[in-house]
Amino acid sequence: MSSPASAARGNVAASSGAAPDPYMPGAGTNAYRVERYELDLDYRVASNRLSGRAVLHGVACVATSAIVLDLVGLRATKVQLNGGRALRFNQRAGQLVASTPAPLQADEPFTIEVRYGGNPSPRRGLWGEVGWEELTDGVLVAGQPNGAPSWFPCNDHPRDKASYRFTVTTDANYRAVCNGVLQSRTTRSSRETWVYEQAEPMPAYLATVQIGRYGLLELDTGRSGPQVPQSVAVSPALADQARAGLALQPAMMRTFSSCFGPYPFAGHTVVVTEDELEIPLEAQGLSILGPNHLTADWESQRLIAHELSHQWFGNSVTAASWQDIWLHEGFACYAEWIWSEEAGVMSVAARAGAAWRGLKADAQDLLVGDPGPQHMFDDRVYKRGALAVHAVRVAVGDLAFFALLQEWTATHRHGSVSTHDFIMAVDRATAIDTEALLHPWLYEELLPPLPAG
């Protein structure tokens, strides 16, 4: 039985053409698509006070008389459509619903502007706390999977990818780091404004802003291989530790570019927080690490490799539905194994064998290709997903396998994909029966035999 609030959400969804991801009911809509976000944020660190202006440039996909945005914990104060008079709107159950004076028609472009503010905080849910989070002295944003509405109004669905412009004003002596390329930095009195342009489209959950007392240092990318600019936002006290901990990242970049195709963005920035973090995370064009992830041991280095590889698998090529998250995590886990072999730590075959034995000893009650929202980030999705990738490699051979991965990342660059798309891609590139090969790994609970080869 649904509550009055959930029933109201259902009515709004039906009237506006919403088709939420089954793993995220009530989030996102297919009534429109967003082509660009322009976010103007003013943030005061000491009081955790955020004032925002969001301009969304969208196109209606169906006829609709309401624009439904995801926004949690912050209060909208004014909403305008196409620069005209203010719209009637209400907020409930994590949604901002603005009524249009006349129905938008299918394929009709529109611009909606939302002014909003408050004290942002993370969302609590199945995956712990996600979204805007205060650090000891600054801010971290961890958007995956549904944290974006904690700091800006959006269409929170992984398939809705848009370009972004971030204008962030905050206290002097703090650096704001966002996705994309820094366009300008200006100082006025005790405030600094940072402007970033993210040209390549991305879903809302990959948008981020990190704020701290960071300096910026450049990593030496070497003289051979792709020269992808790599920088580190880090406090002066942790700069030497960051250089040492990230010394191998340029080599990882060269290895992954060779295996997966060209790095898909203009550069890569690592943010090192002063607070220790339970887990690292990635956003489009960025990795976010704690100082506890900067050691030379395999556990830290594999995490650095994992987050870097997500730039290809998850960020440029994004699953259209959370059900297919193995397309992110299985491939990123397999990238760890590739780096392990390249670095002379352990071969891919040995990593696969160790993972298989661990899975064999664990419960076999999960479908990796449809794990359910509670188990999206279960370690078995990562390891068994990586073994599914390895099974393809063993079946087709190295030459065809790496050609396939490069074709996959090139064909779907900055796009959205499904498991079906991947099966079709393998079918087109090889002579194997991909469905028969992958079905036991993805859609059966019993663990298949370890791929031999």
Q: What descriptive keywords fit this protein?
A:
globular; five-stranded mixed β-sheet; 22 strands; Immunoglobulin-like; alpha+beta; Neutral Protease, domain 2; seven-stranded mixed β-sheet; 3 domains; 28% helix; 453 residues; single chain; disordered N terminus
Topology:
Layout: H1 4-16, E1 32-44, E2 49-60, E3 64-70, E4 75-81, E5 89-92, E6 95-104, E7 109-118, E8 123-125, E9 128-135, E10 138-142, E11 162-171, E12 175-178, E13 181-188, E14 191-202, E15 209-212, E16 215-218, E17 230-234, H2 239-245, H3 249-260, E18 268-272, E19 281-283, E20 286-289, H4 298-309, E21 317-319, H5 326-342, H6 348-361, H7 379-396, H8 398-411, E22 415-417, H9 419-429, H10 434-443
Parallel strand pairs: 1-11, 17-18, 18-20, 21-22
Antiparallel strand pairs: 1-2, 2-7, 3-6, 4-7, 5-6, 8-9, 9-10, 11-14, 12-15, 13-14, 16-17, 19-20
Helix pairs in contact: 3-4, 4-5, 5-7, 6-7, 7-8, 7-10
CA-CA gap between termini: 52 Å
Rg, please? 22 Å
CATH class membership of the largest domain: Mainly Beta
Approximate shape: globular
Kindly give the count of domains.
3
Q: What fold name goes in the CATH topology slot of the largest domain? A: Immunoglobulin-like
How many individual β-strands?
Answer: 22
Mean pLDDT: 94
> What summary fits the major beta sheet?
7 strands, mixed
The CATH superfamily of the largest domain is: tricorn interacting facor f3 domain
Question: How many alpha or pi helices?
Answer: 10
Return the CATH architecture of the largest domain: Sandwich
pLDDT < 50 runs, ≥5 residues: 1-18
